[in-house]
Amino acid sequence: MSSTSRTRWLFAGQLGPVFDDGGPIMIVEARSVFGRRPMHRAKAHLILSALRHRAAELGDRVEYHRVERYSEVVTGRDDLEVIDPTSWSARRFVRRHGMAVLPSRGFVTSEPEFAEWAAGRQGSRLLLDDFYRTVRRRTGLLMRGDQPEGGRWNYDHDNRQPPPKNAARLGLPDPWWPEEDEIDAEVRDDLDRWQREGAVELVGDDGPRRFAATHDEATRALEDFIGSRLNDFGPFEDAMLGGDWTMAHSLLSAPLNLGLLDPLEVAERVVAEYHAGRAPLAGVEGFVRQLVGWRDYVWHLYWHLGETYPARSDYLGAHEPLPEAFRTLDPSMIEATCLRETVDGMRRHGWAHHIQRLMVLGNWALQHGYDPVALNDWFVDMFVDGTPWVMPANVIGMSQHADGGIVATKPYASGGAYINRMSDYCGACVFDPKVRLGENACPFTAGYWAFLDRVEPRIRGNQRMAQPLAGLRGLADRKAVVDQERHRERW
Ligand SMILES: Cc1cc2nc3c(=O)[nH]c(=O)nc-3n(C[C@H](O)[C@H](O)[C@H](O)COP(=O)(O)OP(=O)(O)OC[C@H]3O[C@@H](n4cnc5c(N)ncnc54)[C@H](O)[C@@H]3O)c2cc1C
Ligand code: SF4
Questions:
Q1: 395: which of 48, 111, 312, 376 fits an S-S bond (Cβ 3.0–4.6 Å)?
Q2: Whose CA is nearest to atom 5 of ligand 2?
């Protein structure tokens, strides 16, 4: 059977033009997918909206099914093909049902290209920086011959500044927001009904849809980013302001992960702004590194590290359950301004920017020994852009150091001083980032020392932790701080 005479089943991560070769299409909306675990309402809405918008665009070319389970539609069919889907379980499912499987798409580096690169490392660590340089050379992005544009591969030194002093916002125009239509209205009604019927458990606010659900919307969002935020992306990539939930970020991860945009095209579009003299090299390089470096790297590590990578990663012996404030996204249970504002943003939008994910949520979870697998699932379920493939390297590896150093060479733990430098949160907080003992001791600062105290036996041999551990040993009040954090009730 030729490829075009087969019906191509498109998954929720495959909804853009890159996944369509012109033949018949099938899209399946299986309600059980939304009911496996509690899910952010904004995420459920976005996925359903994107599936239904794609079906509307494809018109007669699509068969659209609304069912409880995928198996109701695919069992017994021998005319289906898929582009290799994006999770271990989906890959198993399509193979079990005998579908024709085409190579995956939607990333800059193909799976064979990554395998070849990884094999060439001959057992040494698979470093993001090495991978990124290989991708730059192969694609020619920001290259002058075989040299990086401007002479350096990485401009982080010029990026990643603190937020402007005394500013409540970066002062950029509001991002472009999609306009909801009758498809969104129907999605909203369905989700209300599913919740009433007990088929799904939705968490977070039912706000207006903020993320692109179609290729056209995603293109608008990209152009809006380029027109109004790209120039500030680099400098404020790691900055946080309580009054500015988007900062200068692109807001493109959700449409990218839905397959609505091709990452290489996005990178080329952004690089063109640099070549046209309209965007600075440092910020453009930073953005390109996130997109063709990090995004692809975590995708390939998902397959390379294997399905059991999360379960076998218990390096720091973290087994605490997630607290109710996390599970229910209830900021009223939290006093620490940085954490409360971040959880509040998540409740409203199902999204937080990178440094809130890594240095507020992830840092907090690391310090408190939350179970990495439960945390991984929570990130997948509570973020509009959460997917099974994006999370393990980011959460298990980078943020929780549960793999003992495969993804990151040291734990991303820090005290309140970092958050204070990179945000305006601390000024409005009941805690003081400089204080580690007493009523107003910052839970991040004191938590940092208590964390080091707990994991010291595990990380003693890590050279990059030698200095922090020397600091720990020099703490006159170490025992009191550890004791305080063990019994902490207010945070
Ligand atoms: C603990 C943790 C959880 C995360 N969860 C997700 C997630 O669920 N989904 C997701 O797509 N990204 C996730 N990331 C990566 C990153 O935080 C988000 O991609 C980014 O914040 C999304 O916002 P944006 O589109 O405005 O990104 P920008 O800041 O504008 O960055 C541009 C693009 O680069 C890509 N990117 C940047 N960093 C990463 C990364 N570390 N991994 C993968 N892609 C990256 C994204 O596609 C993003 O759209 C996570 C990172 C951490 C540390
Ligand atoms: S003082 Fe501590 S808890 Fe409060 S905002 Fe700053 S870092 Fe967060």
A1: 376
A2: 426
